[in-house]
């Protein structure tokens, strides 16, 4: 990506800062409601497509292959954080184990009622995972532990914390922030913050 203006010259982070973002070393907590505390013994994730419905408990999730990735993350409230390391189950492996079919859209739900929508290709083609570790340690409750969705190439509101359900379908239902005017897709590089962007 070409660098432009002051930001591009001033930082050693050329090409890694999406437009309108600043880089922080902190890890801010952003939750629309209270932090959910879900014990691993109670935690379940259901993956369904209207025909097939498969529920994974904590042990079943850990039977699936896990990967570790290091990636940059971008929040719509303008902070970006570089080189965050996550461990979890790639969504491709999860869907394969769930036996779900080929559908275009996903509606993701959390314990506590948060929802978000995204195209299935964005869950399959990239680094999207069910993350259970951050920085080599179990994911803290405030950041979505015991397990959250991570979709690092989209604004972080798509990365549902306290993940409980992924429902696939032919139509795109809107999630919590999308219904409130946030962009349906949320690409940080195109600054897709709001529906009007
Ligand atoms: N369940 C749930 N997941 C959520 C949210 C939320 O309010 N509830 N907020 C989203 C938003 S807007 C952001 S920026 C990230 C923040 O993740 P963090 O608190 O780990 O930084 O979580 C996303 N996932
Ligand atoms: Mo956010």
- SSE string, helix = H, strand = E? HEEEHEEHEEHEEEEH
Q: Give the full name of the CATH homologous superfamily of the domain at 22-28 and 40-102 and 122-163.
A: Oxidoreductase, molybdopterin-binding domain
Distance between the termini: 20 Å
Number of helices: 5
CATH architecture of the domain at 22-28 and 40-102 and 122-163: Alpha-Beta Complex
CATH class of the domain at 22-28 and 40-102 and 122-163: Alpha Beta
pLDDT < 50 runs, ≥5 residues: 1-11
* Portion of residues within helices: 10-25%
CATH fold-level topology of the domain at 22-28 and 40-102 and 122-163: Sulfite Oxidase, Chain A, domain 2
Query: Can you count the beta strands?
Result: 11
Shape: globular
Which structural class do the helices and strands define? alpha+beta
Bound molecules: ligand MTE, molybdenum atom
Strand content bin: 25-35%
Q: What oligomeric state is this? A: single chain
Main pleated sheet = 6 strands, mixed
**Mean pLDDT over the full residue set:** 94
Radius of gyration: 17 Å
Give an overview of the whole structure.
The model is unreliable at 1-11 (pLDDT under 50). A hairpin with a 4-residue loop joins β4 (67-74) and β5. The chain has a domain at 22-28 and 40-102 and 122-163: Oxidoreductase, molybdopterin-binding domain (Sulfite Oxidase, Chain A, domain 2), CATH 3.90.420.10. With 197 residues, it is α+β, with helices and mostly antiparallel strands. It has helices at 5-10, 58-62, 91-98, 120-124, 176-179; strands spanning 22-23, 44-48, 53-57, 67-74, 79-90, 105-110, 115-119, 129-134, 137-138, 148-150, 163-169. 14% of the residues lie in helices and 31% in strands. Strands 1, 4, 5, 8, 9 and 10 form a 6-stranded mixed sheet that branches. A 5-stranded mixed sheet has the order 3-2-11-6-7. The longest helix is centred in the middle third of the chain and has 8 residues, at 91-98. The chain has 5 helices and 11 strands. Bound molecules: the ligand Nc1nc2c(c(=O)[nH]1)N[C@H]1C(S)=C(S)[C@@H](COP(=O)(O)O)O[C@H]1N2 and molybdenum atom. The ligand Nc1nc2c(c(=O)[nH]1)N[C@H]1C(S)=C(S)[C@@H](COP(=O)(O)O)O[C@H]1N2 is lined by residues 27-32, 75, 110, 112, 114, 143-144, 156-157, 159-162.
């Amino acid at each position: 990506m070409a660098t432009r203006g002051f930001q591009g010259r001033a930082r050693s982070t050329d090409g890694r800062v999406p437009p309108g973002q600043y880089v922080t070393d902190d890890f801010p907590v952003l939750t629309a409601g209270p932090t959910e505390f879900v014990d691993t013994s109670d935690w379940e994730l259901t993956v369904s497509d209207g025909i097939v419905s498969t529920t994974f408990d904590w042990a079943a999730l850990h039977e699936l292959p896990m990967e570790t990735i290091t990636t940059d993350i971008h929040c719509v409230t303008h902070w970006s954080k570089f080189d965050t390391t996550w461990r979890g189950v790639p969504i491709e492996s999860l869907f394969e184990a769930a036996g779900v079919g080929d559908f275009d859209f996903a509606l993701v739900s959390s314990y506590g009622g948060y929802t978000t929508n995204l195209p299935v290709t964005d869950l399959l083609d990239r680094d999207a995972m069910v993350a259970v570790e951050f920085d080599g340690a179990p994911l803290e409750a405030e950041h979505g532990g015991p397990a959250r969705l991570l979709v690092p190439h989209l604004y972080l509101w798509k990365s549902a914390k306290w993940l409980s359900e992924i429902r696939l379908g032919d139509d795109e239902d809107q999630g919590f922030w999308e219904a409130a005017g946030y962009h349906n897709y949320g690409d940080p590089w195109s600054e897709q913050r709001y529906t009007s962007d």
